[in-house]
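Table S2 (continued). Query chain:
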Amino acid sequence: MPTASLSDDLPPQNLHPLREYQAPELPEPYYDRYEPDIPIAIDFGSLSVRIGLTNSEQPSNVFPNLVSKHRERKTGYNLTLVGNDLFRESVHYPTLRSGAKSPFDGLLITNWDYVESILDYSLEHLSVTSENGCLNNPIIMSEPPAATFGYRKGMYEMMFEAYQAPKVVFGIDSLFSFYANSKKKDGVVVSIGNNLTHVIPVVKGKGILLNSKRIDWGCEQELQFLQKALALKYPYFPTRLNQSHTSNIIQDHAYVSPNYAEELATYLDLDNLEKKDVVIQVPVEAAAEKAKKTEEELTRQAERRKEQGKRLQEQAQKKRLETIAQKEKEFAYYSELQEAILGLSKTEAERRVIAEEFENVEDLHKYVDGLQKAIRKFYNGDEEEKEEEVDPAAAWPLADVSDSELNEEDIKEKRKQKLLKSNYDARMRIKEEKRRAEEEKIQYDKDQQEWRARDLEDWCTAKRFELAQNISLYRKRSKIMEAMKDRKSLAAQQRMKNIAELANEKATGNGAGKKRRRNAGPTATIDNDPTDTFGTNDADWNAYRDIDKASLEDEQERTNSEILRLEEELLEHDPNFHHEDTFAVQETFDWKNLVLHKFIHGPRQSLTVAMQTEGHDADELLNNPEVIRRNHQLHVNVERIRVPEIYFQPHIAGVDQAGITELIQNILERNSDKNFEVGGQLRAFIENIFLTGGGSLLPNFEERIRLDLRSLLPSGAPLHVYKAKDPQIDPWRGMQKWSFTDEAEQSYVTKQEYEEYGPEYIKEHGLGNVCLKDF
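Corresponding output:
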């Protein structure tokens, strides 16, 4: 393994295997204490089924609410498996697991044949016997709050018509759980179910359903959200995650954050991430690691890298030769231009030079002098030739003599001397400019030193602001230059528009330009049109800057030089400005500074990136067992708190509803007597806030609700938040406990009442739904 793949002095990260659902090793037990006339309690949830006779304190059978059907090809025998049996038999019939289905589709039952198969399976394992062909036990069955008429109608038909049960009663699972756990009759029930979350106030042992609240979010939506989040995080992950995988990830690693915003702000800090990042390893078969390379192979690899470096050097040298060749061509061309403008008037010379995209004649001389120095430096090295002192009158005596006093040969010599003299003058001006620049720099350094001595903090603030402005300008210009590469971008289209407009006005003579030239007379041309005033205003030449990429590059270089100068000053004098704060470091790829890298790969460097940096071949990366193993890893970090946080902030998942704490607050403030005194309803509510349902098993759930409510209540309020002893089994225990009460006996709907009044008939009780037929 390459050394770059290992983090400095850090132990290997703990790997957690990706768990599948594991069915119990023993088959589903058969109940041996069956008695007729004893009520059968059925907690028929969308995720799992819990069933048992109420003469036992525990449900005799608990299994997933799944059915799978298989047809044996050889014998033609149809096999229907329910619950854990289909997972055990999937070893022999692999299609059973993939073909497993629930009778529920979201909140509704859509396959009543599956319901019948599940009930047949359940009653068989309860060892139900009958001499009259009927089910002789009363049925207590759970249902969701505000259960639809279709749900109750289907269950009535199943119990009374298919099984001939003597009587049936329905109740809400979360209220049964409250009945099993709470010693008080008043309170607030928070039920985190598989599809929905409910908050139900309970007064005198009766659920007030008209004041209950609901969030369209539960465990199933939680699993789907995590599955989509991981698919977005790892779009090319080689293994597809199913709901069983994501369910185990949430159960094993997710938790509710007591302070979500504060923890999220520091979650991806390296030290914090090292503790909280969870690495989940998906099973993968990787080829055995190849034997270590021999010295000969290592030598060949080093030679290949050396050859690659040599090729790069040759390419760089070739590029430099091409550049200097281009500069020599430009020097020859612009030297001829210098000679050509010597015979022109000052105005004509300026126009000719501006047409070549120079600001003035002096700018041309300066550019030619720069080319000459660059060429001389390339051939002579970094040594600069000293400018010899020259007496212009002695060196170029003909330069200032009138042409009328010279013959033809002297005029030609005069032109050469004028060119040499103009180049000399340009060099002298550059030298003078350098001298003035040095003097200005000395004065600038002196002013800056006085400023720092007077107020260092103000100086640092001003320099940081100036640096930020230059960096912003640099990035903005970089975006424009990058956009120009795309011909469909707005910047590229605007550039082409400017080019077209300039070409149209100066070449084709359309519009006002054509009109001006007609008025100028028959001898007017595009070069001598007296009515063409383009260029007299300095702003006219900005159009060339809009179409010239080279000018943008020059400005970018100047801005970069200014950034470097400011950073150098700040590094020297600002105690709070460090190398890590420089623009170059910020723009350099450093995985420790990249939030996306830490989010995807955790607190360690990506092995693939490390090996690529070391120069390993693509084939070596593709076949490296360690790379393959790491490519089958999931880093779960922010998701550990983000997914559970949706219960408190549903907008994270795009659900336009209030969170659990807000719903409880709404019930306390609007649906109570607001009396904090002993005996008051509000006091009774806050003294008994009860959590139930599988979603409440997440760590810190009750602590989060307690902290949120504590911030809303007066100091010293007797707040008590607690969780069911077993949130998944307690609904059944509540049904078993309730079955022995007089209220239960009076709440059954008999088969005769069903046949007389129809499936819409129900009897209200404190733990069930209410009749809404009058509304």
